[in-house]
Amino acid sequence: MTEKEDDYNCLNQSGGGGTGKSIICYLSGEPNNAITFLSVNDLPESPVVAPKLSEFKVTGRETYTPEHRNTLWYRLPVTSQKVSDPWMEYALPIGNGVFGAMIYGGIHCDRIQFNDKTVWTGSPRKRGSYQSFGDLYIEDISNVFGNDDDKAVKNYVRDLDLEEGKANVYYTSPDATTSYTREYIASYPDKVVAVHLAANKPGAINVKISLFPGIQTGMGERGVQRGRRIVQRETGLCKL
Fold first, then answer.
1. Rounded-to-integer distance, Cα 184 and Cα 197, Å
2. What is the pTM of this model?
3. Which 3-state string (H, E, C) describes 166-187?
4. How far is CA 43 from CA 11, 35, 39, 79, 221, in A?
């Protein structure tokens, strides 16, 4: 678009936002334009990065019998493992061949890294590689858990039920009176990766949810591609 000779070099939806609208060209200063266009020089230099959090003290469940036989299960979250590649070695995958997610099962900071097969580098004539679509972070801010023995996460277990295609996390409060569950699915008919948080007591869930794209234009270190500046950044909330 930057190589066009006229001033109509900005794309926007026609007739308002939402699905089913047309894409047309606008002047950058058009008063009816719902999008504000910034020049490359006005982009922030520093990336928006969430604080990194270490995992709470976690005690795994002593005994566990999965509902279905074909189930992978673990007594600690990925976020407490000291390995070179937690994503590859310990995260649990859900998906359907089109999109999916990797589940870390953290309590202080859970991470759901998701992807879609259309997110990739390259072009029809140049081979590329798949890129991360983004990360959803779920940070526990309840002040129930901590790093001391009297605030440790108790009875923790996470699993991947291969028969149902569903990942789960189970744990209790330090005094074992409150039970928490998290369920993760990737539904192709609904076109959604869904996370369900539940507890056996009202008001027991208190979390902060953050969403970060895997590759973001407009934040962080700058580069140049075909005369236009492009930007990529890496983000991380969990300390692994």
1. 9
2. 0.70
3. EEEEEEECCCCCCEEEEEEEEE
4. 19, 15, 7, 33, 10
- Judged by DSSP in three states, 164 sits in coil
How confident is the prediction for the chain on average, in pLDDT? 80
CA within 13 Å, CB half, 193: 21
pLDDT at residue 225 above 50? no
Q: How far apart are the first and last CA of the chain?
A: 41
CA dist., res. 176 & res. 124, Å (int)? 55
Residue 112 per-residue DSSP state: E
Strand partners, 183: 168, 196
Torsion 12-15-20-23 (CA) sign:
negative
Helix, strand or coil, per DSSP, at residue 239: coil
Which residues, other chains included, contact 15 with Cβ-Cβ below 8 Å and sequence gap of 6+? 21, 22
Each residue of 114-138: pLDDT tens digit?
999 888 877 777 777 778 899 999 9
Centre a 10 Å sphere on the Cβ of residue 52 and count the other Cβ atoms it contains. Answer: 11
Report the alpha-carbon distance of residue 99 to residue 97 in Å, rounded.
6
